[in-house]
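Usage

Read records sequentially. Each one opens with the input sequence:
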Amino acid sequence: MFGLSELAIILIVVAVVVGVKKLPELTRSAGKSARILKAEARAMKESGPPGEPKVIRGEAIRKDAPGNGGG
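and closes with the structure output:
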């Protein structure tokens, strides 16, 4: 995609355009955005395809068991 020299040029241009005073704030917000994006991508990957039901393992509850109101 980009080589090291292209990235360096882009960073220098951004530093000049934005200014040195705003650069720490900009990098902080970019880091937060990247973390949020990564967490959302991980959550989407773990949940599976949208049409597929999610299986939750646990105890099976019988309808006719005492205390369940099943009878």
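Summary fields computed downstream for this record:
- DSSP finds two helices and no strands in the chain.
- The chain has a mean pLDDT of 78.
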